[in-house]
Amino acid sequence: MMNYRLLGRSGLRVSELCLGTMTFGEDWGWGSPKDEARKIYDAFREAGGNFIDTANVYTQGSSETFLGEFVSGHRDSVAIATKYTNALTTSDPNAGGNQRKNMMQAVEGSLRRLRTDYIDLYWLHIWDQITPIEEVMRAFDDLVRQGKVLYVGVSDAPGWWISKANTIAEFRGWSPFVGLQIEYSLIERTVERELIPAAKALGLTVTAWSPLAGGVLTGKYASGEAGDSRYSTEMMKQWLPERTRSARIVDALQNVSKQTGRSKAQIALAWLRHRAVPVIPIIGARKLTQLEDNIASLTLSLTPDQLASLDEASTIELGFPHHFYAQEMVRNFVYAGFGDRIIL
Known about the structure:
Blueprint: E1 4-6, E2 13-15, E3 18-20, H1 34-46, E4 51-53, H2 62-70, E5 79-84, H3 100-114, E6 119-124, H4 133-146, E7 149-155, H5 159-172, E8 177-183, H6 195-202, E9 205-209, H7 233-239, H8 245-260, H9 264-272, E10 279-284, H10 288-295, H11 304-314, H12 322-326, H13 328-335
Parallel strand pairs: 3-4, 3-10, 4-5, 5-6, 6-7, 7-8, 8-9, 9-10
Antiparallel strand pairs: 1-2
Helix pairs in contact: 1-10, 4-5, 5-6, 8-11
C-alpha cells in the first residue's frame, strides 16, 4: 500500500512515489505510446499513487496532453505537478527562461493541455541565472492568488539562490517554495554538499529525478545496452571499468540484491527513503513491468549493514567547509570541548 507525505511546509498529501511522465509520448523518438502510457498511469493509481510529474516541454506537449486525458473524471484526486522555463529553439527570445512573461505564457499552455483550471504544484524547471529573484517569486505568488496554481517549487537551482528566494517570499508575504526537485541517486550524491542541507533548513520535500541514474543502477549497461545519452558513450567508458566508483556501487547493489532477493532498482529506490530529508523518487517507466518493479521497492526494508555498504560504495568528498567542521580540533574550539555532550 502506498503511504503519503506532506509536501514541504504545506498540508498537501502526496504519495511517497511520484510518477514521472517524460516517457509519455513518442515525439522525441522514444517513450511510450498512448495505450502503454495509460496502462502505466492506471497501475500507478491502482497502487495508491496520486503524485504525477510532467513539464510543458516533455515530448513536445504530448505528456501533458496525455495526462489531461487520463485524469478526466477524477482530476481532484490527483496532485499534478508541471514545470515552466524550458522551450525548444525558436525565434522568440522570451520563449525560455524564468521571467514573468514566459511563466504566464507557459502556465496557460499547460492548463489548456492538462484540461484543468488549476495546477497543484508549479515548478521552476531550471534556474536561468539572469531573472531577478523578486520577479520570479512575485509572479509565482500572483498565480497562487489567482487560483491557477496551489503550490510552487524549484528544480535544478543552487542552494544559496533557493534560500534567498524563500527568505524574500516569507518576508513579503508571498508563496514560498514547498519542494525541491534535483537529481539524486547513489551515483549523484554531490547534492548532499549544499542542496540537501538547504532543503532540510527550509523544510522542503525533495523529489529525486533520475533516481536510477538513467539505468546505470539497474546494471543494464554492464551488457552494453544503450540508454539515456547522459549515461552512455564516453561517460560509460569511465563508469564500467572494474575499479571505478560507479562499478563499486553496482557491485554493492548486486550484493544486497543477493541478500534480499530484490532487484537492484528496488534497492536503489529504497536507499533514497533513508536520507537526511524526506525524498520522493520520481519513477519513470516506458513499460508497465518497469513501473511494477519500482513500486515494489516500497515493501523493501534495508538493514543498517546494507545501508552502510551502499553508503560506503557511493561516498563522496563533501569538501570545504564540511570536512573542516568535522576536524576534532575545530569541534573542540567551536564547542569548547563539549561537542560530544551536546544532544541535538
